[in-house]
């Protein structure tokens, strides 16, 4: 399993900079991408790798969900999952579900293999900003612009 170590240095003298700005120096990361740049038609505020690293999901401001095949960096599928922006994505630990936090106050569960929305979870009063599966995949948490953090229990199959 790969791990990331923190080797960043924040400059201590920022008197010549605007308030709140800082430069992070990291010798392990290049400033130029060494992998291909994946292109989408709209801005992508949400991206998430699958737990096994074989898929990359991206959600855009038009409500489109795109699944990318990581080994080949090719687009597997794109579907319109929502009529509102997608702000956050989370794969279930088994990779069989992808949760999308949507701007229409709903969470949509999506099947990455079938390329379809399988469930719309309603319950927030404002846009959903964040989603996360628990490590065992049995609980989904969603956070909203309404200030609520809700926990959803997965149904047993």
Tell me the structural class. Answer: mainly beta
Number of strands: 11
Mean pLDDT: 79
CATH class of the domain at 46-153: Mainly Beta
Radius of gyration: 18 Å
**Would you identify the CATH architecture of the domain at 46-153?**
7 Propeller
| Total count of helical runs of at least 4 residues | 0
Looking at the structure, the CATH topology of the domain at 46-153 is Methylamine Dehydrogenase, Chain H
Helix content: under 10%
What is the chain-wise order of helices and strands?
Answer: EEEEEEEEEEE
Estimate the strand proportion.
35-45%
Low-confidence spans: pLDDT under 50, at least 5 residues?
Answer: 1-26
CATH homologous group name of the domain at 46-153: YVTN repeat-like/Quinoprotein amine dehydrogenase
> Which strand order spans the largest sheet, edge to edge or round the barrel?
1-2-3-4
Give the overall silhouette: globular
Tell me the major beta sheet. Answer: 4 strands, antiparallel
How far do the termini sit from each other?
A: 30 Å
Sum up the structure in keywords:
157 residues, mainly beta, Methylamine Dehydrogenase, Chain H, four-stranded antiparallel sheet, 11 strands, disordered N terminus
Verbal overview:
By secondary structure, the chain is mostly beta strands. It has a domain at 46-153: YVTN repeat-like/Quinoprotein amine dehydrogenase (Methylamine Dehydrogenase, Chain H, 7 Propeller). Helices cover 0% and strands 40% of the residues. It is built from no helices and 11 strands. The protein has strands at 46-49, 55-59, 64-69, 74-80, 86-91, 98-102, 106-111, 116-122, 128-133, 139-144, 149-153. The strands form 3 sheets. It has a 4-stranded antiparallel beta sheet with strand order 1-2-3-4, with no helix packed on it. Strands 5-6-7-8 form a 4-stranded antiparallel beta sheet, with no helix packed on it. The chain is globular. The two termini are 30 Å apart. Mean pLDDT is 79; it is low at 1-26.
